[in-house]
Input
Amino acid sequence: MGTVAEVNDSTFEAEVLQSSEPVLVDFWAPWCGPCRQLTPVVEALAAENAGSAKVVKLNIDDAPESAQKYQVSSIPTLMVFKGGEPVERFVGLQPKDRIQEAIDEAKG
Output
């Protein structure tokens, strides 16, 4: 499976906002059942998009500032960032192809 980097409040800007490629951010927490269900999907997306988009996880318990800044009130929340701005947001479990479409749009 793909490598999904962990980001936190101190690495979010460098890893996500300053990235030259689109970034899928998985806002999650270890105690969240649906978040754990989504993990294999996120890992598969990381593998399939390696080299053209970045996939990272942000534990909201460890990075409350970033979660608050992007108004993450329910998890799992997936956000696609392009050029330092969020361009797509998904809340709850999502089909893999729907997330991939958003990543592809951000690539184009």
